[in-house]
Specification:
Layout lengths: L4 H6 L1 H11 L3 H6 E9 L5 E6 L3 E6 L5 E7 L4 E7 L2 E7 L4 E7 L3 H4 L1 E5 L1 H23 L6 H25 L4 H28 L3 H5 L23 H17 L12 H16 L3 H19 L3 H14 L3 H15 L11 E4 L4 E3 L8 E7 L4 H17 L3 E7 L5 H10 L7 E4 L2 H7 L7 E6 L4 E7 L5 H15 L1
Helix pairs in contact: 5-7, 6-7, 7-9, 9-10, 10-11, 10-12, 11-12, 11-13, 12-13
Length: 484
């Protein structure tokens, strides 16, 4: 896993300037860490470097779209750098002088690191890209494989990455922390795939496949440290933990007699929160897992306000993160107002002509489908508009209204819809994007809210690209015709 030599030489001159500007004194080498680079085709004039809630700094780009940042007394570990709407991780340690170069048109694929500390980071980005390819392959065919074949294939992929890792540490002098994080990145990805395999077959109702899992399928679980402070911000580690607790709560849920009074989804989520509380002692990891499990239930699995309240109160009784508590309380309030037959919360909109108007003024047909998009996700908004246009031709009784969610992007939004020649009568932006996105709980890009002519909610959590979406439209249209 080596990065392109061509890309490397393109950056040499900039790297020399960068290193020189950093200084070469012994004091600098011991006390300062440098992070800089160049953004090709930038979306904004800044980059944000952060480490959870502990550290956050906004770094401005210069006129050449370059930036340089010096950190004194850096805490070694994983950081994230964000250039809207994309982000990636960077492993920084004291004394590093890491330089990045990327093109926003191919953010991850174009990202290359140079300078002191680059080898470990190029290894991590190569792993990230390889893992993305493998996940797509698993979605297509891998998860349908028999357990023995699946395990053999994944063990083979793990071996390839282990060989690459040994080559990395042979050629480069890495700290113990860097070795641990780079190795954990692919090891926990390997573990996560096994948990996901079991989870998916359970959702598909393939009990026979689950029973056929060999005894060694989950043997790695005995090696896992569920409270590893150094891995707490590693994506593959956290994704593994989420998948593990989903499986663990399901496997012994039937023994929890006190939860039999609840529906399966409600009872198993309560059990999952209890498992996390009993097995995790690290405050950051525990609160993060509790938040994710509760968030998933509120957004995807709760069927009524009573169930939401039950999970939320249980979460509040064991969580110690005040910020997340307030966030989920607010979310639950907004979700409660989006139940079927509730009147959709009215929003202030801006039309393509620059006029301010109310959302409620758009409900002119038996059904209105509201879908959402951002100029920062071109691939999504192009496909979303194509899908909406296609569905409009099939369902004349449904209005498809596109709502742009970008903050302070009115000029760019107007340019975009005019450039693509979208129907301006169906294009609107939120006057107060942050507030409207919260009130309408826009947490995923494919979300569609369906309302009737009176503004009553029919479905607040439809998915524009889900296979079942057209069937839902057909059913709702038939019901609307019967009522009229």
């Amino acid at each position: 896993m080596q990065f392109s030599i061509v890309k490397y030489f393109l950056q040499v001159s900039f790297l020399l300037c960068f290193v020189c500007s950093c200084g070469s004194s012994e004091k600098d080498n011991n006390e300062y860490t440098y992070f800089g680079g160049e953004i090709v085709n930038p979306n904004t004039n800044y980059v944000v470097l952060s480490k959870g809630y502990d550290y956050r700094d906004t770094i401005l780009l210069d006129k050449n779209n370059r930036f340089s940042h010096r950190i004194e007394n850096l805490e070694d570990g994983l950081y994230s750098f964000k250039h809207n709407p994309e982000y990636q991780v960077v492993l920084l340690e004291k004394g590093d002088s890491v330089l990045i170069r990327l093109n926003t048109l191919e953010f991850d694929e174009s990202l290359v690191f140079t300078g002191k500390g680059s080898e470990k980071n190029n290894f991590l980005i190569d792993l990230f890209l390889q893992n993305e390819i493998e996940r797509e392959n698993l979605k297509r065919i891998g998860f349908r494989s028999p357990p023995a074949y699946f395990k053999k294939k994944q063990d083979s992929l793990l071996n390839i990455k282990s060989v690459a890792f040994k080559e990395l540490i042979y050629k480069n002098e890495l700290s113990n922390l860097a070795k641990k994080l780079t190795q954990a990145c692919f090891v926990y990805e390997h573990y996560m795939k096994h948990e996901l395999y079991s989870n998916i077959h359970h959702k598909m109702g393939n009990s026979n496949t689950i029973q056929e899992l060999p005894a060694s399928f989950f043997s790695y679980r005995n090696q896992v440290d569920f409270n590893d402070d150094e891995l707490k911000r590693l994506y593959s580690y956290n994704r593994f933990l989420n998948c593990y607790f989903a499986n663990a709560s399901r496997s012994n849920y039937k023994n929890q007699q006190h939860l039999s009074q609840y529906s399966y989804k409600l009872g198993s989520t309560i059990h999952q929160l209890d498992l996390i509380d009993s097995m995790i002692v690290h405050p950051y990891i525990k609160n993060s897992l509790l938040r994710r499990s509760t968030l998933r239930f509120l957004l995807k699995e709760s069927e009524n306000n009573q169930e939401s309240d039950k999970i939320l109160n249980h979460y509040l009784s064991i969580s110690t993160n005040n910020r997340s508590q307030q966030e989920l309380k607010k979310l639950a309030r907004h979700i409660s107002k989006l139940r079927p037959n509730k009147i959709i919360p009215d929003q202030d909109l801006i039309s393509s002509e620059g006029k301010t108007m109310k959302l409620s003024s758009l409900f002119n047909k038996p059904i209105t489908a509201l879908y959402f998009w951002s100029i920062e996700s071109k691939d999504h908004y192009v496909k979303a508009h194509e899908k909406a246009t296609h569905l409009s031709s099939l369902y004349s009784g449904i209005d498809f209204i596109a709502l742009n969610i970008d903050p302070e992007q009115t000029k760019n939004w107007l340019k975009t819809i005019k450039r693509h020649r979208y129907n301006l009568d169906n294009e609107y932006g939120f006057k107060y994007p942050k507030c409207s996105s919260e009130e309408l709980v826009i947490h995923y890009r494919n979300k569609v809210i369906l309302v009737d002519q009176e503004g009553k909610i029919i479905n607040s959590g439809a998915d524009l690209f889900a296979p079942v979406f057209e069937k839902q439209l057909m059913q709702y249209t038939q019901l609307a015709n019967l009522e009229n």
